[in-house]
Design a protein that fits this description.
By secondary structure, this protein is an alpha+beta fold. The chain has helices spanning 2-35, 40-88, 108-114, 131-134, 141-146, 208-252, 261-285, 297-314, 334-351, 382-385, and strands at 93-98, 103-106, 160-163, 166-173, 181-191, 197-206, 293-295, 318-322, 330-332, 357-365, 368-374. It has a six-stranded antiparallel sheet with strand order 2-1-6-5-4-3. Strands 8-10-11 form a three-stranded mixed sheet, with helices on one face. The chain has a two-stranded antiparallel sheet with strand order 7-9. Helix 1 packs antiparallel against helix 2 (40-88), helix 6 (208-252) packs antiparallel against helix 7 (261-285) and helix 8 (297-314) packs parallel to helix 9. The longest helix is centred in the first third of the chain and has 49 residues, at 40-88. It is elongated.
């Protein structure tokens, strides 16, 4: 904008200089004619030479001015081109509107976010640039800078914050991606040399994952508090349960209670079940340091192979191992991996009917190792899948589980 103003000043100066030269030339000619009025034979020749010199001088000056103007225009063009390239390669999705609200820049990040090429959006107005975000032509944040009288749409759940000359907003764009996206946008005015708004630039950031991460952190903080409460409560519960169990064992060994042996066994089993539930709750509050060592994952799977095969045979099911050769050794905690494999395999066996097969497979990708536990069950229902990361989540009846909390 400032360069355009400088170009206008330059043009005015050029015209002024040409006019000055013409005026000076006329004055010189006038004085020349007066000085040579008594020498008429040479006056015409001298006048002609003077006019030719002036024409040559004006031509030279005009050529010089044209050359300077051409250089100035080339510099202006390169400057504009450089600015367009900077906007085009900004990491944030960015668009620029002129004073009439038409698109004059639509960068690569904007193309990736909306799926619309710049050539299909350039010089479009009437809020057409909002359609990829909201499925309708409506004002975006930059329009509120171009038209301060523009009113906020009714029933819209967003807040516009003004910081200096910029506007900032966070809102939901339902038409981005499959399930929509939460966007953080910032619009800044573009001013001309006189300080008037000549356009606006707006950038967009997809903060959907950031919002989800924030909610997850808040949820984890709440679970941490619950875990600490559970630890203190369960310790208090476990102490009297230990006393009750010991007393039941003593009573069950007395002759007068031999007929009630089954009842005592049932009570002891229920007490053990209570202790198991308490242990699961206590594990939620643990924050133990995990020691990692180099191991071969195939060796751990093979060590559990006989145990898992026995579980499969007892329920009339099969288990198959497809272990890749020469997989790299990786850093892991053997105890936790063993427990995870046992849980995944037994859950897979429980989900299948008799005659079905469970497959445990390993593979390597570079320095990474992949383990798959594949069952032939009915699969996970969508409503259960949404709660899969919740602690103690299980679809089994009369079973305590910590879920996939780790």
């Amino acid at each position: 904008m400032r360069q355009i103003g400088k170009q206008k000043i330059f043009d005015q100066l050029v015209i002024f200089h040409i006019m000055c030269m013409l005026i000076l030339s006329a004055i010189l000619l006038h004085h020349l004619c007066i000085s040579t009025r008594y020498d008429r034979p040479n006056a015409a020749f001298i006048t002609t030479c003077m006019i030719l010199c002036l024409i040559i001088l004006i031509g030279w000056f005009t050529g010089l001015v044209s050359d300077i103007r051409l250089r100035f225009e080339n510099t202006l063009f390169r400057s504009r081109r450089q600015m367009e390239e900077i906007i085009s390669f900004l990491p944030d999705a960015t668009l620029v509107l002129n004073k009439e609200g038409k698109v004059i820049a639509w960068n690569h990040a904007m193309e990736e976010m909306t799926g619309i090429k710049a050539e299909d959006m350039m010089y479009k107005g009437d809020y057409a640039y909002a359609f990829p975000f909201y499925g309708e032509c409506r004002p975006i944040l930059a329009n509120y800078l171009l038209d301060p009288q523009l009113e906020k749409r009714p029933n819209e759940e967003y807040v516009i914050t003004k910081i200096n000359d910029a506007l900032i907003m966070e809102n939901f764009a339902p038409c981005l991606h499959e399930n929509g996206a939460t966007l953080w946008s910032k619009a800044t005015p573009l001013n001309d040399e006189e300080g008037n708004i000549a356009g606006a630039i707006e950038s967009f950031k997809n903060i959907t994952e950031l919002k989800q991460l924030k909610l997850e952190i808040e949820r984890i903080d709440r679970l941490n508090i619950i875990g600490q409460m559970a630890a203190s409560i369960t310790h208090e519960i476990r102490n009297p349960l230990t006393t009750i169990r010991g007393m039941l064992q003593l009573l069950s060994q007395k002759k007068e209670y031999e007929e009630d042996e089954e009842k005592f066994s049932l009570m002891l089993e229920e007490l053990d079940r209570c202790n198991e539930i308490i242990s699961e709750y206590l594990s939620l509050a643990k924050n133990e340091h995990v020691t990692l060592e180099q191991h071969n994952l195939n060796d751990i799977i093979q060590a559990l192979g006989h145990l898992l095969s026995a579980d499969a045979i007892l329920t009339d099911k099969m288990i198959v191992f497809h272990l890749a050769e020469d997989i790299p050794r990786i850093m892991l905690n053997e105890k936790e991996i063993r427990q995870m494999l046992l849980n995944l395999a037994r859950n897979g066996l429980d989900s299948m009917e008799a005659g079905k097969c469970l497959t445990i497979r390993t593979a390597s990708e570079g320095n990474k190792v992949i383990m798959e536990v594949i069952d032939e069950g009915t699969g996970i229902q969508p409503e259960v899948l949404a709660m899969l990361n919740m602690p103690f989540m299980t679809t089994k009846k009369n079973v305590c589980s910590c879920g996939l909390k780790r």
